[in-house]
Amino acid sequence: MWAKAPVTDMTFDTTADRRSFLSEGLRPVECVTCGTCVLVKKNSLHHTSIQWQTSTSSCAEFAAAGGPSALQDTCSKLRASIESLVATGLLEVPDG
Known about the structure:
Layout: H1 11-22, E1 27-30, E2 37-42, E3 48-52, H2 60-65, H3 76-87
Antiparallel strand pairs: 1-2, 2-3
């Protein structure tokens, strides 16, 4: 007879996953143009997580767009600031 696997409490795993995804590995990065500071985590060369700590209105590029900031990927100058840190090895990119 076939039996189901026992039900386990996944709260710890879920909480650990959430913490890992949302906060671990984040590093403050300041835009060299406007000084806006965001939290950044490189998950791979092509995947960057950015958490804004202030309103995007503090960024001239977002303000100039005139529309909802959620529709913009990021500020090109902030992206350049992040890529510069990656190129100099000051912002780590995980292997793989």
